Amino acid sequence: MPQSKLLQLIELASEPSSERRRELLREVTNLFFTGGDEAHSGAEMELFDDVLGRLTVEMEEAVRAELSERMADALRPPRQLIADLATDSITVAGPVLTRSRALTVEDQMRVAQNQSEAHLTALSRREGVSSAVTDVIVRRANDATLGVLLRNQSATLSREAQETIVDRAQANPDLHEAVVDRHNLPPDLLNEMYFMVEAQLRDKILEKNNALNPADLDAALSVGRKKLATRDGALPFDFAEEEAAVRAMKRRGQITPQVLAGMLRSGKTTRFLVALAELADVDFHTARRILERKELDALAIICKAADFDRALFLTFAILILDVDENAMARARQYGDLYSELPKDAATRTLRFWRMRRQSGDVAA
Predict the structure, then answer these.
(1) Would you call 87 helix, strand, or coil by DSSP?
(2) Is 351:221 a contact under the CB 8 Å cutoff?
(3) How far apart are the C-alpha atoms of 141 and 284, rounded to whole Å?
(4) Which pLDDT value is given to residue 327?
(5) Residue 249 domain-assigned?
(6) Which residues of the chain have pLDDT under 50?
(7) Is 335 a member of any domain?
(8) Which pLDDT value is given to residue 357?
(9) Is 200 domain-assigned?
């Protein structure tokens, strides 16, 4: 394309009439795409950048949005123009932020650091958005945008970003499904979600645990963050006394599953929890959560992994459930769950829960 044509258009770009400027903008845009957007020399690209930049100044939003929609799929759009469009209003910026392959990581970072929530959401939909960008999005975005980002399986999330998202999911059930469904969420973080989510999502976690090969499981356990959650709260007042009693019984070989059932039946709650934690090698807070919240599916995991038989699990279940909760019917339901639970899935899940016991030992 002769540069003289573009130079003439540069002169016309100063035309004060907004209607004429719109016509010129479309004419230059059409000229840019004539022969393909990669057909222009470096000098021509600079001229296009200059002319289009001048013509878009003070153009109505609808006109700029039309230009953005056309440029979003260009393989080699004018460099400054595409960067400017990305920081425009979301109506204008949206197509470029979501689709433009010419938008550099540096461009995306500037948008992520400085633009609105709507801009962050558009960036979160990009194919292959980098961890450098998603780190900023996770730091600045609200939970709705985090949900969009999580569902973009092509987005790269750093370990730190994923830990932040799991922490935020504790307070927002709307994030639970997106977190659990995240295809490459580290298994230790996935298992932190277990006690947060509803039954259907717990089943998904168990399925993913069951699919882990031993090497991946060991790798996940080696890099997992070993921290105690502050929400666990204080130990009960009789913890030290009951822990000493359980340790003494253990030395004498008196801690058996049947003895545990007797503790629970006689109302020795703290002693039961200390002993259950000892036999299953989980931390006290996890055992207490299972009992206080009547998490019988989680109790089934512990019993299955510890090789407690189904009858003993059902005894625990009936004792934990209140009479007015139709304990027998629910116990039978959970008995079926126990029978159907794969031993490998239970064992692998329990290994993640044991990380809390290890961190507690270190912290103590």
Answers:
(1) coil
(2) yes
(3) 35
(4) 67
(5) yes
(6) 1, 226, 228-230, 360-364
(7) yes
(8) 60
(9) no
Give me the pLDDT at residue 19, please: 75
Q: Are residues 240 and 292 in the same domain?
A: yes
SS3 of residue 38 by DSSP: coil
Query: What is the C-alpha to C-alpha distance for residues 359 and 225, in angstroms, rounded to an integer?
Result: 9
Query: Are 286 and 277 contacting, i.e. CB atoms less than 8 angstroms apart?
Result: yes
pLDDT at 135: 98
Please count the residues of the chain. 364
CA dihedral 167, 168, 170, 172 (to 10 degrees): -170
Q: How far is CA 364 from CA 237, 275, 286, in A?
A: 17, 19, 16
From 214, 206, 167, select the one nearest 304 (Cα to Cα). 206
Q: What span, in angstroms and rounded, lies between the C-alpha atoms of 172 and 182?
A: 16
**Which residue bears the tokens 């070993």?**
226
Q: Are 48 and 76 in contact (CB under 8 A)?
A: no
261 and 342, same domain (yes or no): yes
Determine the Cα–Cα distance for residues 364 and 358; give it in Å rounded to an integer. Answer: 10
Per the domain annotation, does 173 fall within a domain? yes
| Greatest Cα-to-Cα distance within the chain, rounded to the nearest angstrom | 98
| Domain membership of residue 265 as a residue range | 234-363
Cβ–Cβ < 8 Å for 50, 14: no
Both tokens of residue 78?
Answer: 């004018």
pLDDT at 362: 36
The answer on 128 and 96 residing in a single domain is no
